[in-house]
Amino acid sequence: MSVSRRGVVKGGAAGALSIALAGSLDTIFQTSAGAEAGAAFGYGPLVPDPKGVLDLPKGFSYKALSAEGDTIGAGVLVPGRHDGMATFAGSRRDTLRLVRNHEQTASGVKPVAPAPLVYDPAAYGGTTTLEVDRNGDLVRQEISLAGTSTNCAGGRTPWGTWLTCEETEGFTGQTKSHGWVFEVDPTGRRTRPEPITGMGRFAHEAVAVDPHTHVAYLTEDASKPFGLFYRFTPRSHRSEYHAYMAGGRLDAMYVPDLPDLSVVQEPGATFRVTWVKVPDPSAAATSTRKQFDKITRSQKLEGAWWGHGKAYFVASYSEQAAGAAADHAGQVWKYDPRKETIELELVFKPGGRFDGPDNITVSPYGGGVILAEDGDGEQYLVGTTRKGEPFAFARNAFNDSEMCGVTFSPDGRTLFASRQSPGVTFAITGPWHRVRA
User: Which domain of life is it from (predicted)?
Assistant: First the structure.
């Protein structure tokens, strides 16, 4: 199987992800083409969109908002390569805010923002903040961070801000170093384009934050050698914006006698871990993942989220042809900070109808999840019922670009999701309670 990129967990509901995910996702990746339409469960078969944009089940509809190239203001356009996204409180009771990443590096529609919001003028990544009313209509939008690079995933903080992650260690023409995490205030009042250096400089993917201790767990998607799973213990435990700027300690996870997570193929396998201090988190001379003689690695470490007092993290796939110790089509691991153990929750095998796990969010309906594909061929939003039965909830009818940024509104009435290229964000509504098993 060839999977193109990521398995990233993002969105406001993701923090509540249930352990039932194990059964549901395993079913998704083992299911045959006969289940693809979801006629037996879910919301029924997909209805072709006359506009050729997004196929949805009967009764559901979408609104396309904030498309790449739309005009925001004089000389300001919506950037492209939409990616990770989360919801926050709006300026009024009947609105909400979306903070959305743009995974551009050194080309595309460049974010244009006031100088106090620009980090590196040579970089094309950043974030856009959208304000949306309860009907899914766009009220306003603005560039909320500019001059960052390859903003892929991220995570929410307990104090209601967005951590946006750079999935890069630099590029030709940069004027400042890259590979950092930045914090974005959804209100736009406090955002400063300053990297959180304590969280390290590497090809970041996602962040999961323990809401009680504020310890953050970070994934790295890198190769030659493969990436690591990190723990950032902040010096300050204040629950406020920029608390992480006070610094802290960055460690990398080490499982003795397990140099490559891909060799573990049995769900339930549990290993005791230790944490090794990263000698130079700034990677001034050597990449953080190269600063160890013995460490535990994995190809395609991607999504991370916090739930049930544990940190979950995803390896999207592993291929021996790329230097991995074993092949798999995805792993979900669970780290228990009290026991200091990791446990393999899931291992996905090739051959299913759906492929390329990317963004995941919990559905408030039916006890399942909504998963965005970033695989080969057609790209779906895939749902599961409480019993783990998979169904196709939506299909990108426009092209083969990945779906991303899935997240429900706080009231559960609207599912927001994006097509990455050409970038456009959708607000999807319909009879959510109709899910059937």
Answer: Bacteria
Which candidate, 211, 255, 209, places its Cα nearest to that of 232?
209
Give dist(CA 302, CA 205) in Å, integer.
Answer: 6
Residues 6+ apart with CB under 8 A from 205: 6, 8, 152, 153, 165, 167, 218, 219, 220, 221, 301, 302, 303, 304
Half-sphere exposure of 252 (CA within 13 A, CB side): 26
Per-residue pLDDT at 138: 96
Q: Note the pLDDT tens digit of each residue in 329-338.
A: 877 788 999 9
94, with CB counted inside 10 A (0-12, 13-18, 19+), is exposed
CA distances from 26 to 60, 192, 314 (A): 27, 41, 13
- Peptide bond between residue 195 and the one before it cis (omega within 30 degrees of 0): no
The DSSP call for residue 227 is B
- Regarding pTM above 0.70, the answer is yes
Do 56 and 430 form a contact (C-beta atoms < 8 A)? yes
Q: Would you state the torsion angle of the CA atoms of residues 360, 329, 418, 361, taken in this order, to the nearest 10 degrees?
A: 0
Domain 12-434 class, CATH top level: mainly beta
Asked if the bond preceding 279 is cis, omega within 30° of 0, the reply is no
Could you tell me the residue ranges of all domains in the chain?
Answer: 12-434
Contact 345, 334 (CB under 8 A): yes
